[in-house]
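Quick one - first record:
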Amino acid sequence: MNYTGPVVSNAGPLMVLAKLNVLHLLEVLYGRVQFATSVYEEVVTAGMLQGHDDARTLSLFLNQVKWSPRSVDTDEIPADIRTLRLDRGGKGYAGSGPHLAQ
């Protein structure tokens, strides 16, 4: 069953699904998943520099399905979320959409 609304993910689900080698389930279940540039930098860029296999797995998957990170403008983040103590990645995906894959 394909979900039709926008789905946004933070780093955690992407890392776990990459470790389990089941990233294809994201495409099967949702068609497309959005993620912030800060999430990509945390999981793929930093992960590959640290030698994490799941970072390479995720990078290959993203290239295969042609999904790219999305830059999120601070104005897109709802005011109540802007006041929370989120790390850069959390703030990066908070404004991307209403449905979070967590």
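second record:
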Amino acid sequence: MTTDEIINKVAKRVVELRLTPIAIIILESIKPLSFLTSQVLVFFQPIVTSILPLDSYEEFVKVLEERENLEKLIKSIEDAENESDAPRRLGPEGMIQRNKSEGREDG
């Protein structure tokens, strides 16, 4: 799995669980210590993987080693949240207007 695939998968899961605000706060706060954080996750791997079925845990830890990837993850979470939240923000009338402006007839 590529770095971008892992980031997108994690971002979608965070949004599904409605953990966007807390995830962004945590990721922003660990950015300066990204390498140290990844090493702590390595230490806790046996415990975490015994509780949660995480197939790509090691790959996720490697992603967190680089600070740029944390920024990508934050951006991806924000984008996924905006995509999932758009219909709620617009409401039924807004969706009809948006569909008409995009040339769609369904509403």
